[in-house]
Amino acid sequence: MTKLIINADDFGYSKGVNLGIIEAYKNGIVTSSTMMTNMPFADDAAALAKVNPGLGVGVHLVLDCGFPVNNNVPSLIDKEGKFRKIDGMSWNAEERDIEKEYTSQIEKFLSFGLVPTHLDSHHHLHGHEKVFPIVEKLANKYNLPIRNVTNHSGATQLNMVQYFDQRFYGDQLTSDVLLKILDKVGSYDSAEIMTHPAYIDEALLSGSSYALQRARELTILTDKKILQNILDKDVELVTYRDIG
């Protein structure tokens, strides 16, 4: 049987994102989420997590959206104090600042009185060659698994799932696309599918280039035919707490 995590990224980004994630959990197939503790609605996300304890919630580590949690990471920020835009080889972030900021984000999550299920990152930056050793160090420090963005089978000490699928994303999402992904993940012992459901609000429309598509994701993720398809397969919907 495949143990399948369906994770909703960006918990805490906005009120609409938070409510969409909870809807996809309560009335859909989402089992897990990851919180952006640096974003304005992280407190709201934490409150929702507490009244929905069955939803697995981890930390969505951020280096390229909003403001940092730590007030002393100069190599990460621009003149306004926001995270710098990351442009490939020109990214001059210092490793010590990355570690300080990521640690602060994890500690802020813990300050909500929640226990994180795992670590992943905004735009998969933890897969960057400069960033991954830092995240690996923190994963070991806090005893947390990491999203397996490279589908690297050798990183079993970090308790990664066997297969990660990020294809449920974009302008052409349909139920058929998700059904094809579900067929693919069924060939693994454990897998994770990335999603971004949301209700649209002003913060999302003005702040994210991926906004309207999230409403379509929410519709698909709460489609009862999708849930029935999963129930008809040899698939168990789980969180990172159930992978070991």
Brief digest:
Helix content is 35%, strand content 15%. It has 244 residues and is an alpha/beta fold.
Describe this structure in words.
The chain has 244 residues and is of the alpha/beta class. The chain contains eight helices and seven strands.
Radius of gyration over C-alpha positions, nearest whole angstrom: 17 Å
Structural class: alpha/beta
The helix tally amounts to 8
Number of strands: 7
Shape: globular
Main sheet: strands, sense, barrel:
7 strands, parallel
Q: Give unreliable regions as ranges.
A: none
How far apart the termini lie comes to 14 Å
The averaged pLDDT comes out at 93
Fraction of residues in β-strands: 5-15%
H/E element sequence: EHEHEHEHEHEHHHE
| Fraction of residues in helix | 25-40%
Provide the fold topology.
Blueprint: E1 2-11, H1 15-26, E2 32-35, H2 42-50, E3 56-61, H3 95-111, E4 119-121, H4 132-142, E5 163-165, H5 175-185, E6 190-195, H6 202-207, H7 212-221, H8 224-232, E7 235-238
Parallel strand pairs: 1-2, 1-6, 1-7, 2-3, 3-4, 5-6
Give keywords:
244 residues, alpha/beta, 15% strand
